[in-house]
Amino acid sequence: MSLIEIIPCLSDNYAYIIRDHQTNKNILVDAPEYAPIERYLDEKALSLDFILITHHHSDHIDGINHLKLKYGPKVIGAKRDKHRLPPLDIEVEEGKELSIGSKKFNIYDVDGHTVGHIAYALLEDKALFTGDSLMVMGCGRLFEGTPKDMWESLKKLKQLPEDIKIYSGHEYTKSNIEFALTVDPQNEKLKVRRMTELERIESGTPTVPSTLREELDTNPFLRESESSIVDHMDTANLDPVSRFAKIRALKDNF
Ligand code: ZN
Ligand code: FE
Questions:
Q1: Known catalytic residue: 149?
Q2: Mean pLDDT for the chain?
Q3: Catalytic residue among 49, 81, 113, 149
Q4: Which helix (H) or strand (E) holds 187?
Q5: How far, in Å, is the centroid of ligand 1 from the Cα of 56?
Q6: Domains of the chain with CATH codes
Q7: Separation of 22 CA from ligand 1 center, angstroms?
């Protein structure tokens, strides 16, 4: 039995179910819609005990109401975003550990895509749930935060152990790879990774999780100041945040 189950939802979202085998509690990360989650739980006759929310967008919370009524989980989200989240049973903040079942989560504020977005890390199990902040070879679009917000958020996540696995909210990898190659065309690791990820995508296998190490090597949003990108983008005289902003703006129109 694996610890973390990937539940594809909608057209390109992922929800995750963390199976805490020690206490028999199940923890869902985001609820883009209820049907695939309900199907998974009911087929295995599992309870749903907790729901973790990364951010307020409908493609991350729309399934919560139905799941709450049917299974009665405790709903957990960012205290500073609670005014626009479904009713929370537990409010979390950066710097305060969340203990549920036998699992301990570290909470990180990761503004940028939205302001009030959080990521959850299970450091013991080496898993990081990033929602629409850090993604496989990409990062979320900046709807509410500034380039500096997202850059700071990613900088924070870069400090985590490099073998931590990244579970992000979407399958955007195909477009992210093709974009990455346009800003970092000389990156040999990126070229190699492109082949393995494209094989996965073609066979319908999720490209999540990746590892932080892989992202450090190939994700242009973590590499704005690497010489290969700086040379190609001609950004030597810009500061890191402006370099990042330039890459993000190009991706918005890719
Ligand atoms: Zn979103
Ligand atoms: Fe989303």
A1: no
A2: 97
A3: 113
A4: none
A5: 7
A6: 3-252 (3.60.15.10)
A7: 32
